[in-house]
Design a protein that fits this description.
This protein is an all-alpha fold. The protein has a domain of about 40 residues. The protein contains 4 helices and no strands. The model has no long low-confidence stretch (mean pLDDT about 85).
Length: about 100
């Protein structure tokens, strides 16, 4: 197939289409910004988590008290309480403040 006559209109149409394609690509390159909103419950949870992070992992006062009782010979471990604590931990239940 031989094309013998391509007028200026065809070339101009081709260039115009190329320019439109460039503009579309530029628009697609700029991503829209994502946005997230945290509910009041979520903010409350964040506050609780922050408070928990501030708390020590070990209650040093309890540790010192038990160490003192062990050294003085007044500490008596309860098998029932120990077993109940182990079972509670295995079930994933929180401690009851002991």
């Amino acid at each position: 197939m031989k094309i013998t006559h391509i007028g200026p209109g065809a070339i101009d149409a081709y260039k115009a289409q190329q320019e439109q394609n460039k503009q579309v690509r530029k628009k697609k390159e700029v991503p829209e910004q994502d946005r997230a909103e945290i509910s009041s419950k979520g903010r409350e949870l964040q506050a609780y988590r922050a408070a928990l992070r501030q708390m020590p992992d070990v209650r040093q006062d309890k540790v010192e008290e038990i160490k003192h009782r062990i050294k003085s010979g007044t500490f008596a471990a309860s098998a029932e309480k120990t077993a109940a604590g182990i079972i509670r931990e295995l079930r994933g239940n929180p401690p009851n403040g002991e």
